[in-house]
Specification:
The protein is of the alpha/beta class and 229 residues long. The protein has eight helices and five strands; from the N terminus they run αβααβαβααβαβα. The chain has a five-stranded parallel beta sheet, with helices on both faces. The longest helix is centred in the last third of the chain and has 18 residues.
Length: 229
């Protein structure tokens, strides 16, 4: 069952219409073990890459207000007493799909991060891409990172209820299925407490506002921190 309430249906329908009508595809502009790799050089930052879409990029807010920037600040505040320094790389592009993520992950892996969070799939679902295809793309991304010995975490996404219960179930199931198949950590829903909540979104009722990004930061931090040095 989708976690969205009936009160949020208007927001969700608007979301589906705007995405399906053609969100700007920035992908055309830019080309497993849950345990963390040993961080060999203490004077270099521990690099966390978040591969995502407009939610990660921080559409509609300043770069400093996006959840990757907030996460970097929070992690370094947590770790002031020790030598590890964190750098969170914002790999979010507006309009990104799992297919686009699969096409650009190799570029990031030329200089492998120390940890990868994959936060893709929402645009696939909103465009009606078959969940099996999205799952295949996500698995390709995750396996290529794991083959480079980069620990990974997968962030789940949910769809508006107007897409039908059968599609919702097929789509939402790909995330826990992949986490189980690859034995990797799962963040069940990236927009927990944000999706469908007017107080957490911009006037377009689609993209998180600064408060929404703060909430996403807390959600990611809660699930990520146990896997970091």
């Amino acid at each position: 069952m989708s976690i969205f309430s009936n009160r949020a249906n208007l927001w969700l329908v608007t979301l589906s219409i705007i995405f399906s009508s053609g969100c700007p595809d920035g992908e055309q502009r830019r080309s497993a073990s849950p345990s963390t790799r040993t961080h060999e050089t203490s004077d270099k930052p521990f690099r966390i890459l978040i591969l995502g879409d407009s939610l990660t990029e921080g559409y509609g807010v300043s770069p400093a207000q996006s959840y990757p920037s907030l996460l970097e600040k929070l992690l370094n505040q947590d770790n002031e007493a020790v030598s590890t320094r964190y750098l969170v790389i914002n790999g979010g592009i507006t309009g990104a799909t799992t297919s686009g993520g699969a096409s650009r992950i190799d570029w990031y892996l030329k200089s492998p991060p120390d940890f990868l969070i994959v936060a893709l799939g929402g645009n696939d679902g909103l465009r009606g891409i078959p969940p099996e295809e999205s799952k295949k793309n996500l698995k390709s991304i995750l396996l290529r990172a794991l083959n480079k010995k980069v620990p990974v975490m997968l962030a789940g996404m949910k769809m508006p209820p107007n897409y039908g219960s059968q599609y919702l179930q097929r789509f939402e199931n790909i995330f826990p299925q992949l986490a189980e198949e690859l034995d990797i950590p799962l963040l069940p829903f990236l927009l927990e407490g944000v999706g469908g909540n007017p107080k957490m979104n911009l006037p377009d009722r689609i993209h998180p506002n600064p408060s929404g990004h703060q909430r996403i930061c807390q959600t990611v931090h809660q699930h990520l921190i146990k896997y970091l040095p």
